[in-house]
Amino acid sequence: MLTLIALLAAPASLLSLLIFTQPTFAHAFGQSFTLPIPVWIFLYGGAAAVALSFLVIGVFVGKESVFGRVGEKEISKISFIRAVTSPLARSTLRFLAAFLFLLTIGAGIFGSADASVNIAPTMFWIIFLLGFTYLSALVGDLWPMVNPWQTILTWWEDLTGSKLNGLWPYPQRWGYFPALILYYVILWYEMLSGGSAAQPQNLARLLLDYSIITFAGATLFGVKDWFKYGEFFSVFFGLVSKISIFVRRGNKIYLRPPFVGLLQEKLSSFSLLVFILLMLSSTAFDGFRGTSAWFKLDLNLFPLYDSFGASGYQIFQSAALALSPFLFLAVYLILVAAMKMLTKSKSRVTDLALQFGYSLVPIAVVYNVAHYFPLLLVQGQAILPQISDPFGLGWNLFGTAKVVPNVGIIRADTTWYLQVFFIVLGHIAAVYLAHVLALRVFPRQRQAVLSQLPILVLMVIYTLTGLWILSQPFSPVGA
Q1: Chain mean position to CA 457
Q2: Using CA atoms, how far apart are residues 297 and 256, in angstroms rounded to an integer?
Q3: What gap in Å lies between CA 350 and CA 344, rounded to an integer?
């Protein structure tokens, strides 16, 4: 029962931070930008683009849609692909990933306490959590190959000569809830820990705690099942990689149209649907927290926060983050129920919700890209001096210790236009996916088109929400 203890220990440590940490603010980043035209034009323009895409897709995409039916083309024999997927290349990547993982923990424990010079916070929160997410969306699911926890367990199995098949079968009723809980804990540390997760020693402790949970879960329930259901990064990167144009099956690499990976299977668990909605809602929540509208709301609610003591602010924000996916879920289920009513389908609302669940993944991914890619471009440059001095001790191993990041690498107006583009593109992709899925679920074209009217409402709501958050001026304290 070590896994149960570990799963309980993580929220317990989180609660201790809630009680003993004073409310502070993080994520203060970026420059203000005055939109060249009124906000409502951007909002209605984005919503109109999504609505127009619905009409075009409804008219021109039928059951014989090329993207819905297209096969995968093997590209394994291309010389470059053969080189980068060779056993030597894979072994090198595994070793490098394990080395960087251990370096991050080592720098956190033994390096400088100054997060601006210690490589650990930049390596984990920026390069890995953001950079690897976008890499997975582009080139597919690399995580099983480079997962340091899986590599360490493989080394352990090779050393001991015994396989970790688990002491007990994984409880299927748990679904993906262990990964969902761990996702929430990591989000909490990132957004709501008052900046403590950016401190190298605290980050090292978080990674060690996560490692204990991972190794315990793999020991108790087997490596295969734990990394499928319980290991957060495996679930997260696996979902993101489904939008990639590359897919690996066995030792072969295939090329496919973008987003098609989301059409190849139905969501297997309601807990995985909640996981996807947390991907979506957490980014919207984080973006909303950075706006002046949230700041004004906080000012009005501070008397209520104070009534709960010094940690009242964080308690309420923690509860809001935990409830955010369920708020999105409620809206989604209401509109799926409307779909059922319009089509007179005999399927249950929950079954229909699972059928269309993967169509939400592009929205979750583009919300993440739109909100965080400036952070990767600007703060990610800190890795250049830090790679020469990973512990912040004054080294200059590769001659880059004096490199000064270019904070003006991307203009504020360029950032805004790219954010609008990403959000609108993601919602159009979601409309397309939902339509193709509807053609599979409902026998008649008219029924499929009718089923998409509530989905269109959902996409327009999400589009307006995302664009409105991006259009808001940031609060003076950040969020």
Answers
A1: 24
A2: 46
A3: 15
Q: Are 405 and 122 in contact (CB under 8 A)?
A: no
Distance separating alpha carbons of residues 374 and 29, to the nearest angstrom: 9
The pair of three-digit structure tokens given for residue 46, joined into one six-digit string: 């984005």
Number of domain units in the chain: 1
H/E stretch holding 20: helix 2-20
Question: Is the pLDDT assigned to residue 333 strictly greater than 50?
Answer: yes
Indicate the average pLDDT of the chain: 85
In whole angstroms, what is the distance from residue 39 CA to residue 398 CA? 47
Q: Give CA–CA dist 126/392, Å, rounded.
A: 17
Burial (Cβ within 10 Å: 0-12, 13-18, ≥19) of residue 289: buried
Residue-number span of the structural domain to which 197 is assigned: 2-471
Please give the average per-residue pLDDT across 138-158, as a whole number: 95
Q: Which residues contact 45 (CB under 8 A, 6 or more apart)?
A: none
DSSP string, 104-125: HHHHHHHS-S-TTT-HHHIIII
Tell me if 479 is assigned to some domain: no
Residue at 276 is within a domain: yes
Query: Whole-angstrom Cα distance, residue 183 to residue 189?
Result: 10
**Per the structure block, which two tokens stand in for 67?**
């993207």
**b/e per residue, 120-129, with b = 16+ CB within 10 A?**
bbbbbbbbbb
**DSSP assignments along 246-301, one per residue:** EEEETTEEEE--TTGGGGSS----HHHHHHHHHHHHHHHHHHHHTBHHHHHHHHHH
Beta pairing partners, 246: 255
Q: What backbone phi and psi angles, to 5 degrees, belong to 424?
A: -65, -45
Residue position matching structure tokens 């000064």: 404
Identify the residue whose tokens are 């209605």.
44
Structural element, H or E, at residue 133:
helix 133-139
In a domain, 31, yes or no: yes
Task: State both tokens at 141.
Answer: 């699911």
Better pLDDT: 12 or 278: 278
Cβ atoms of 243 and 365 within 8 Å: the answer is yes
Q: What is the CA radius of gyration of the chain?
A: 23
pLDDT band of residue 36 (cuts 50, 70, 90) is low
pTM: 0.88
End-to-end Cα spacing for the chain = 38
463's enclosing H/E stretch is helix 445-471
Are β-strands 73-74 and 252-255 bridged in parallel, bridged antiparallel, or unpaired? antiparallel
Q: From CA 345, how far away is CA 336, in angstroms rounded? A: 11
Q: Which helix (H) or strand (E) segment is 73 a member of?
A: strand 73-74
What pLDDT does 23 receive? 32
In this structure, is residue 206 part of a structural domain?
yes
In this prediction, residues 22-26 reach a mean pLDDT of: 34
42 pLDDT above the threshold of 80: no
DSSP secondary-structure letter at 161? T
